[in-house]
Design goal:
Layout (H helix, E strand, L loop, with lengths): L2 H7 E4 L2 E4 H15 L3 H9 L2 H13 L6 E5 L5 H10 L4 E6 L2 H13 L6 E5 L12 E7 L8 H11 E12 L8 H20 L2 H13 L3 H10 L3 E8 L4 E7 L2
Parallel strand pairs: 3-4, 3-6, 4-5, 6-7
Antiparallel strand pairs: 1-2, 7-9, 8-9
Length: 253
């Protein structure tokens, strides 16, 4: 068997290569392990910056009352919680995740926040969305695309469920463009984060996977091209925090 043939049957899981049909299960184990401490770890490992990144993403969504939004890989619901008041009581946010434990955490958070009437919940795989074509005005995914096995298929599905004139927003870790900071960033990612994960969440390996999955994710230009290949138009991106993260946007016309 050639190397190319092996690559067709395997996919990256951090720096490992695993059978394609195993990645979703392994990612699920990572997030089930950290779900209870997920929000605390996000605050600690980003020094709270993730909240600013998510607010910027929602600001770029330009939501109006009555619109319908699909929030993929919603986790514990940070984007959903910000978007629900913007679409109002005549709008809808569908909060989804492939991981049942994360979705349950998120649903509990939304109920505690008093957000009930405008939010629906669904456990879905981003590669096979159970929604009709042209169902949503916006599709958002924050820090979830790099965990998807087939990114191209997921992006094509996002385009399919968009209404004409709508757009996708992808908030994701990306590639630092301030190169002198790269050694410091690497030290933080591969030494500090796993130790923090062990101390706070009791799981160093999941946060080592996090650092590795960021490095394996397509850079800004490559992801923009993937979105174009999926049929999205006018694709662009905005770097935040020196390229640690980027917000990608692509329209359906």
């Amino acid at each position: 068997m050639t190397n190319n043939a092996r690559d067709d049957d395997t996919i990256d899981f951090g720096y490992q290569r695993v059978p394609r049909d195993e990645k979703a299960r392994r990612v699920g184990e990572v997030f089930s392990s950290v779900a209870g401490r997920y929000d605390l770890m996000n605050d600690l490992m980003s020094a709270g910056l993730h909240r600013l990144w998510k607010r910027q993403t929602v600001a770029m969504a330009h939501l109006r009352p009555g619109q319908c939004v699909l929030d993929l890989a919603a986790g514990t619901g940070d984007l959903t919680q910000l978007m629900a008041p913007k679409v109002g009581r005549h709008g809808q946010v569908v909060m989804t995740d492939i991981n049942e434990t994360m979705l349950a955490e998120g649903r509990s958070r939304m109920i505690d926040a008093g957000l009930v009437s405008t939010i629906d919940y669904a456990r879905v795989n981003a590669e096979a969305l159970p929604f009709p074509a042209a169902s949503f005005d916006r599709v958002t995914i924050a820090f979830g695309l790099r965990n998807v096995t087939d990114k191209a298929k997921a992006l094509a599905e996002m385009r399919r469920v968009l209404r004409p004139g709508g757009f996708v927003l992808v908030l994701e870790f990306s590639h630092l463009y301030i190169k002198p900071l790269q050694p410091l960033y690497d030290t933080y990612s591969f030494q500090v984060l796993p130790r923090m994960g062990r101390a706070i969440a009791g799981d160093a390996e999941s946060y080592r996977y996090l650092a590795e999955s960021i490095r394996m994710h397509p850079d800004q230009a490559a992801l923009r091209d993937l979105m174009r290949d999926a049929g999205l138009e006018d694709c662009d991106y905005t770097n935040l925090s020196g390229g640690i993260v980027a917000i990608h946007r692509g329209y359906r016309y």
